[in-house]
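quick one, 701 residues, struct below
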Amino acid sequence: MSTRWLLASLILFTTQFALAAPTDADFYVAPNGNDQWSGKLADPKGNDGPFATVARAQKAARALRAADPIRKTPLAILIRAGTYFLPEPLAFTPEDSGSPDSPTLYAAYPNETPILSAGIVLPTFKKQPNGHWTLNLANTPNFDPKWSFVRIFVNGQPRYRPRLPKTGYYNIADKLEPTPKSVGKGSDRFKFANDDIRPDFANLGDVEALIFQVWTMARMRIESVDAPNKTVNFTGNSRSLESYSTFNKGHRYILENVKEALSQPGEFYLDRKTNLLTYIPMPGEDPQSTQVIAPKTETLLKLTGDIANRKWVTNVTFRGLTFAYTNWMTPPEGNNFPQAEVNLSGAILANAARNCTIDQCKLTGIATYAIDFAAACKNNLIQACQLTDMGAGGIKLGLTRNETNEELITSHNTVRDNVIAHGGRLHPAAIGIWLGHTPYNTIEHNDIFDFYYTAISVGWSWGYSPNCGSHHNTIAYNHLYNIGQGVLSDMGGIYTLGLADGTVLHHNLIHDVHAFDYGGWGIYFDEGTTHQAAENNVVFRTKTGGFHQHYGKENTLRNNIFAFTIKDQLQRTRQEPHLSFTFERNIVYWKPSATLLGSNWTDDKYKLDYNLYWRTDGQPFQFAKWNWQQWQERGQDKNSIIADPLFVDPENGDFRLKPNSPAEKIGFKPIDLIGVGARNNPASSNQQPPPPAFPLILPKP
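---
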């Protein structure tokens, strides 16, 4: 078997996990390389050796393809260990494409870890008598006076700007009507209490207010402070005058980038007027041996096809690479999006990409979303990656607009075996995996945890509009947990919107979903969710409900387990003239401090039957306002039973059934969750989160 044939088989291998790439390649890149060399040697030898930059290898690969347009063997670029600082994104276009017979591979050299960084290493700081470190940023190479950043990375760990209050939150004292410039648009000011916001803050225009609304957070720049009237004015406004968007009395907020608040180890402050960067070191850090990286650019990799001329970026694989330390700066008007922070793009951004793969890659220290497959992306694969420490979310598929031209729709993509963790560090309303108007995708075997909003969101159409491009998606075998954590409200482990014909949620394990106020749900069918099925899922320890349907049509929930919700196990909000959902062969299990049904069950436009219910103290309970007999007389649950399902160890999350469980009587089938979550991904066992980015409000144990 030739090594070249083996390389071809590895590139085309897209089930489970690919093996390490062989050591032979068309071109090599190494930190000790030279872009004037041939790039054909893995190590320097005499006056030849590897290239120094990936961009140079990319140029050589293009030339090779141009010289042999009908090439039948793979084209491989192997990248040696080290950090490659990118002054601008790597840009791939149709001329970088491979083919099914000759795919292109950009991969880590076997057993090595190349890092593609959007940051720069700062010069050595000077230690001051008070222990603080200082650096004049103007002394960095290629200094740009407009350069700013909201995080730095010290020995690979994120560090944040100083905040007030030092613990917890401030609260808005009163809502104010918008100023003339924002009338009809949204909130642009509020009244504060005490001296929480001061007009004499240094560099007042650089201070930002992080205002927690309902399911979003507005990041606003301060324009002015009226101390006598205790009013703060912002340069921009919230996105609407709806109650979920305005700055209401009692809402929480934090002030960030306050120079006077610089007091705790791990905090930094950049005085943009003097370019002086000050950092308070953590114990044990020394300026002579500590690497400090400041992010510079927002995007590391772009795949951009020519949509107008139907020319795609095709058959390109990125394997084993680390993408790190991207930047994002608050716009002059601030940042506030109605939902999910999907106005933010990705460190890897693709448009018109086909049959491309991101495999076994790591993305860390990302300021926005990690990966964004936006328009006209089909048959791509994101697999076995580790996406951690993200300012926003993990992966975006599709657009917020619904394309009608089939060729321009993003569809048929697969996201599997990834660990997506520690998100929302700058933008807490971001999603682990977000699907907009995009059908026929498979999202399976992913671990998603430590987020402040929803883990997986599917659909982007409110109500029953036929212009819903999210259907026939499969969400399966995902492990979703530690979601919400008391930071935002109105969220779900899995959240759905709009018409969803053919979409199935199955064999997902969802637990520990806790909202600040209402809406910590496990499975959440929101506005207009229609013809969706949820089967063989296990949901437990949520705040507001294991399942909630706001409104929708003819959905099915079958053979699921819902347990230990703090408030109501099942919720239904809006009455409509059609069948809301069918709920059958499920097990519902809760403690006496909670209730079974919450919100609105006064009509009969739902069908519940062949279910098993059990309150852990064995005492009678109500079905909303009806007892068991009255409930059955209403035509509901005529073949259901009330009995202990005999779980193995429910208090510790083991919902397997003991022998002779009465669940057999309702036709319930045991749920096999072996293999749930990311398989064989080293990060899947690393569940210790970094410190939270916002104060958490969690239920008492």
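The chain has four domains: 3-117, 119-162+262-294, 170-261, 295-326+340-685.
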